[in-house]
Write a structure and sequence with these properties.
single chain, Thrombin, subunit H, 10 helices, PDZ domain-containing protein
């Protein structure tokens, strides 16, 4: 009989299913490394499910025979007709003491500890319209959020949060993405008032796992420009990886998550906001805007007064490295500085992690300038520029680094960068992704750090009210970029 006409018997069907199962298992074994997911399209909340892991259920008959239920104690009382008897009164006192002890013991079990902790999702009535969605989102993201602490010569250094972003089931290891402030040197004179600082790459880092155990983490990588650090951890059980969403917009409802010393969640509600960065902040930051009343740890929160900033400073690192999540439980950013409410958007994190996996570094083109996007100005200012100078969008130069190629090219504060390599730019986040693309495209060719290349920029000269196209030489580097303020020493008298 020809093979095509062979009848599929029950035995053949079982054999085919067995072969297919083996193929699926082989495909799974060939892909032991799992990565955090980056998504663009939105799914309904009902589609999102928590990965639950249960211990084997004990057979009910065995459980009942080996561990019979304790007797249910009822509140004792003395019937009216026996109220005068001394023996009944003594028995009542003994029974009542047993009853009160049982109540006290049961009040300490985990299911009765209902009111010792609360967050803005329980005590802020202004969040009623998103409370259910927000609770589901927090619980969906929670298993991917861990706490890390660093030590230098056995002395505590810092404490931050982190996100599971990759796991290797064959090697039983996982990667944690966290804030570089975890290993940043403490310098009271600087605190966070400069872009880069000194980092202790050799610091001991402990990961506080959610089951109450700890594990020693191994340093993998540090990126100073984005304040990112990667650590590898040996894990006995699979960990839940974060899911990222590249889409985030101003005014969006989001939640900032962290963990305290007892590993309880810290939850703060806020909205995404665009702001002009401070002098020492990166231009690509986005901001978490919140009411003081919404700031909460796992205990009922109160607004921070001037005298409580020390406590805030002590607690602030607990959320650095933690996620900003949307109402679907997806990560839209990572907290960079809780004290300044800044976060790195997921669209940049996405590119950073892709480059690190491919190149084992995150190369970026350094321009030697900082900017303010025209897009975020008041519409009166935007309309005036459009009406008088035909300026639709672009980045206003705020700072030019001393002795940089930008300074030598004649770019000054107030000039506008309209296009880069032929592409119009409207936000600093767009610019940052372009600088990463330039670094990624150039680095595999050069294979060296601090390589030089030319990019084409279109400049609107603010003082001369004209446009010019120029070639700007930039540096491709894996290091952090510091903008050096121009200073001039006065060594002789200038005035008579």
């Amino acid at each position: 009989m020809p093979k095509a006409g062979r009848r599929r018997t029950r035995g053949n069907l079982v054999t085919e299913r067995g072969r297919e199962a083996k193929k699926k298992k082989k495909r799974a074994d060939d892909r032991p490394v799992l990565l955090a997911a980056f998504v663009e399209s939105k799914k309904s909340q009902s589609e999102a499910k928590l990965d639950r892991v249960y211990a084997d259920v004990v057979d009910s008959a065995t459980e009942e025979s080996s561990d019979p239920p304790s007797p249910l104690l009822h509140r004792p009382y003395i019937p009216d007709e026996l109220a005068g008897r001394a023996d009944i009164l003594a028995a009542f006192r003994e029974a009542n003491a047993t009853y009160e002890a049982d109540i006290e013991r049961r009040s300490a079990v985990l299911t009765m500890d209902l009111y010792s902790s609360s967050s803005c999702l329980s005590n802020d009535r202004r969040l009623l319209h998103i409370r259910e969605a927000a609770k589901d989102a927090v619980l969906l993201a929670a298993n991917s959020i861990i706490s890390l602490s660093s030590y230098l010569d056995d002395e505590p250094l810092n404490r931050c949060c982190g996100l599971w972003i990759q796991r290797d089931d064959k090697k039983k290891t996982a990667l944690v993405l966290t804030s570089a402030y975890l290993i940043r040197a403490k310098d009271p004179s600087l605190v966070r008032n400069q872009r880069t600082g000194e980092y202790h790459r050799d610091a001991s880092v402990i990961v506080h796992l959610l089951d109450g155990t700890t594990a020693l983490a191994r340093f993998i990588y540090l990126q100073e420009h984005y304040d990112l650090a990667l650590y590898e951890v040996v894990v006995d059980k699979p960990v839940q990886l974060s899911t990222f969403n590249d889409n985030v917009h101003s005014g969006q409802d989001v939640l900032r998550l962290g963990r305290d010393e007892s590993l309880d969640l810290r939850i703060t509600h806020g909205r995404v906001e665009y702001r002009f960065p401070d002098h020492h902040e990166r231009c690509h930051y986005m901001y978490f805007s919140h009411d003081e009343l919404s700031v909460s740890s796992t205990t009922t929160s109160k607004p921070y007064s001037q005298g409580s900033w020390d406590r805030l400073d002590e607690c602030s690192l607990h959320e650095d490295g933690g996620p900003i999540i949307d109402l679907e439980g997806k990560v839209v950013g990572m907290v960079i500085s809780q004290m300044k409410d800044t976060f790195l958007p997921s669209s940049i994190l996405h590119k950073c992690l892709d480059f690190w996996r491919k190149l084992k570094c995150i190369p970026r083109a350094h321009l030697g300038m900082t900017f303010t996007p025209i897009k975020f100005l008041d519409p009166i200012c935007i309309e005036r520029m459009r009406r008088k100078h035909n300026i639709e969008s672009g980045l206003i130069v705020e700072q030019v680094s001393k002795e940089s190629n930008a300074e030598k090219l004649g770019i000054r504060k107030g000039d506008i960068i309209e296009r880069l390599n032929g592409q119009y730019i409207s936000t600093t986040t767009e610019l940052e992704k372009m600088l990463l693309d330039i670094g990624g495209d150039h680095f595999p060719k050069a294979k060296v750090s601090n390589a030089k290349l030319d990019i084409r920029i279109q400049i609107f000269r603010a003082t001369k009210l004209c446009r010019r196209a120029r070639n700007l030489t930039v540096t491709v580097s894996d290091c952090g970029e510091d903008i050096i303020e121009g200073t001039c020493p006065i060594t002789v008298g200038l005035w008579r």
